[in-house]
Design a protein that fits this description.
Rossmann fold, 6-stranded parallel sheet, 22 helices, 529 residues, alpha/beta, single chain
Length: 529
C-alpha cells in the first residue's frame, strides 16, 4: 500500500473508476486535490469561473455517458457551481462535485470562505450533499456516488472534505466495487403491458431522454405495432423524423393534447412529462397509460397512469419486444395523412410565433452532417431549432431544459468537445446569455477546440420582451448595450465571422469544425438566400 495525502489518493480513486478529465479551479483550500492529478493521469481543464466548470462537467457527462467531475473550493467556489448542479439535477445528469470545507465552523467565525451551512446549501440543488469526516468516509462517499451513477440514478452528488483531512496521509482507496445494475422489470407487469399493447388499435408511444440509449429497440417497437410516436425535447432522435407515425417533438404544442386524447393506449418511457415538456398540466390522454421510469418520484404521479413500471428502459423494451414481435401487426389506426397534417400545422405555429428563424435553421440542418452534437442556451433561436431541426440520432442535442439556466451552451459545449475529440460540436447562444459565461471562450482557445459558436444577437431579451407584450406590460429592462462580440472573440484568440447569407452561414460553421480554435459566428437577423 502506498500512502499519499488523501487529496492525491482521491485522484487515483477517480482514475480507477474511469474518470479521465476533471474540471475546476484550484484555490488555497483545495490545492491538495491537485497534488495527485498528474501522477494519477487525470487531465484537468481550468475554467474561468466555477459556473463554467460545472457546465463543462455537465456537457462532458451528456456527451460521454460518464460522470462529469469538478473540483471547487470552500464557500464561494461551491456557491458558484450550484447553478450547474441544479441544472444537472433537473435534467438527470451524472456529476460529482468534490469541494474542500472548513475543519470547524461552529466555534469560529470570520474564516476565509466561511459560510453558515455549506452542506445544506449544496443539498438544495443536488441529489445529496455530504461531509467526509474521515478517510474511509471520503472513499465511501465517492464509491457511493459511482455506484448510484452505475445503477442509472444519474443526478449530481456533492462531497465536502475538510482542508486538514485532504492533506492527511492515507492508504490507497479500495478497489472499485461491482457496479449495481439498474432494476429489471417485473415479468408479470411486462406481460400485462404486452397484452395492452397487442390489444391497442391506436397506440401512442412517447419517448423521453431516459430512453436515449435504447433507440433501436424503441424504433423496433413502434414499427412492429404500427404505432404513432412523440418524443420529448431530450428524446429527439430516438424515433427518426419522417418515420411512419412520427409526430416529432411536439409535446409542448397544444394540439398534441388532442392527439393524445385520440389514442387508445399511451406508453411513456423515460420521460417526466414535466412542465417544460408539456407547458400544460396534463398530457391530455383519456385511455390507459403505461409509464416506465427509473425514478420512483416520476412514477408516483398517479394521474392517468394505469400501469407504473420501475425499470431500466432497455430491459423493459427487450422483454416487451420478445412478447409482442411474434404477433403480426394489425392495420394501423393512425393515418399517414393525419400525422403529416399535424406536423405541418405545428411547424406553421412555430414559424408564426418567431418568424424568420425557420429558414436559417433549415439551412443549417440540411448543410451539416448528422453527427454534429449541439449544445444550446436559453435563446429564441434555440427554442425554434429544437422543434424544427431534425435529429437523426438521439443524445446529440443538449439544452438546459428544466432549470433553464442562461450561460449553459458555451461551457457545456467545451465539455462535450473534450469528451468527443475530433468530432463536431456546435454551441448556440443568445447575445444576453452568452455573456454569463463568455470568459470560458478562453478555455476553448487554450484547448485548441474547433468549436463553432452560433451567436443570435438581436440586441435584447427578445423572449422576455415578447412575454411582456403578450401580458400587456410595456417592455421594460429588456434592452442592453452589447459589446463588439467579434472583437472580443479575436481578443481571446478565437476566429470571428458574420455571414451575410444562409449559404455563407453554413460554410462558416463547416469551416469552423476544422479551424483548430473556436469560431464565434454572429447572426443578427434573417439571412438572405
Amino acid at each position: 500500500m502506498v500512502q499519499r495525502p488523501l487529496g492525491a489518493q482521491i485522484s487515483h480513486m477517480l482514475k480507477a473508476r474511469g474518470v479521465g478529465v476533471v474540471f475546476g479551479i484550484p484555490g488555497v483550500h483545495n490545492i491538495e486535490l491537485y497534488r495527485g492529478l498528474e501522477e494519477a493521469g487525470l487531465h484537468h481543464v481550468l475554467a474561468r469561473h466555477e459556473q463554467g466548470a460545472g457546465f463543462m462537467a455537465d456537457g462532458y457527462a451528456r456527451a460521454s455517458g460518464r460522470p462529469g467531475v469538478a473540483f471547487v473550493i470552500t464557500g464561494p467556489g461551491l456557491c458558484n457551481i450550484m447553478t450547474p448542479m441544479g441544472q444537472a439535477y433537473s435534467d438527470g445528469v451524472p456529476m460529482l462535485v468534490i469541494s474542500s470545507c472548513l475543519d470547524e465552523v461552529a466555534a469560529r467565525r470570520g474564516q476565509l470562505h466561511q459560510m453558515k451551512d455549506q452542506q445544506g446549501a449544496a443539498g438544495c440543488v443536488c441529489d445529496w450533499s455530504e461531509v467526509a469526516l474521515s478517510v474511509p468516509a471520503a472513499y465511501g462517499l465517492v464509491e457511493r456516488a459511482f455506484g448510484e451513477f452505475g445503477a442509472g440514478y444519474a443526478r449530481p452528488k456533492h462531497v465536502s472534505v475538510p482542508i486538514a483531512l485532504l492533506g492527511q496521509a492515507a492508504d490507497e482507496a479500495p478497489q472499485p466495487k461491482v457496479v449495481p445494475i439498474a432494476p429489471r422489470p417485473d415479468p408479470v407487469q411486462v406481460a400485462e403491458a404486452a397484452d395492452m399493447v397487442l390489444a391497442a388499435k391506436r397506440p401512442l408511444f412517447i419517448f423521453g431522454g431516459g430512453a436515449r440509449a435504447v433507440a433501436p429497440a424503441a424504433r423496433a417497437l413502434v414499427a412492429c405495432r404500427k404505432a404513432a410516436s412523440m418524443v420529448s425535447f431530450a428524446g429527439r432522435g430516438i424515433i427518426a423524423d419522417g418515420a411512419p407515425g412520427a409526430f416529432g417533438a411536439v409535446l409542448s404544442r397544444t394540439g398534441s393534447a388532442e392527439i393524445a386524447a385520440s389514442a387508445d393506449l399511451v406508453l411513456v418511457i423515460g420521460s417526466q412529462l414535466a412542465e417544460v415538456d408539456l407547458w400544460r398540466a396534463q398530457l391530455g390522454h383519456e385511455a390507459a397509460m403505461i409509464r416506465v421510469d427509473l425514478d420512483p418520484e416520476v412514477l408516483s404521479d398517479a394521474a392517468g397512469v394505469s400501469l407504473p413500471i420501475l425499470a431500466d428502459a432497455g430491459a423493459f423494451l427487450d422483454e416487451l419486444l420478445a412478447l409482442v414481435e411474434p404477433y403480426p401487426a394489425r392495420k394501423s389506426g393512425w393515418q399517414r395523412g393525419e400525422v403529416s397534417k399535424a406536423r405541418a400545422a405545428f411547424r406553421a405555429e412555430v414559424d408564426a410565433a418567431r418568424p424568420g428563424l425557420a429558414p436559417i435553421i433549415d439551412a443549417l440542418a440540411e448543410g451539416l452532417e448528422d453527427d454534429v452534437m449541439v449544445y444550446s442556451d436559453m435563446t429564441q433561436f434555440a427554442y425554434v431549432a429544437k422543434e424544427l431541426w431534425p435529429m437523426a440520432r438521439p443524445g446529440h442535442w443538449h439544452h438546459p431544459f428544466g432549470f433553464g439556466t442562461l450561460g449553459y451552451a458555451l461551457p457545456a459545449a467545451i465539455g462535450g468537445a473534450v469528451a468527443r475529440p475530433g468530432q463536431p460540436t456546435l454551441a448556440i447562444a443568445g447575445d444576453y446569455g452568452f455573456q454569463y459565461t463568455l470568459p470560458e471562450l478562453g478555455v476553448a482557445v487554450e484547448l485548441g477546440l474547433s468549436l463553432p459558436i452560433l451567436l443570435w444577437d438581436n440586441g435584447k431579451l427578445g423572449e422576455i420582451e415578447d412575454s411582456m407584450v403578450a401580458a400587456q406590460i410595456a417592455p421594460n429592462a429588456v434592452v442592453a448595450q452589447n459589446p463588439d462580440f467579434l472583437a472580443i472573440a479575436k481578443a481571446y484568440g478565437a476566429n470571428a465571422a458574420e455571414p451575410d447569407s444562409r449559404e455563407a452561414l453554413v460554410a462558416a460553421v463547416r469551416a469552423a469544425f476544422s479551424a483548430g480554435r473556436p469560431t464565434l459566428i454572429r447572426m443578427t437577423g434573417a439571412l438572405s438566400v
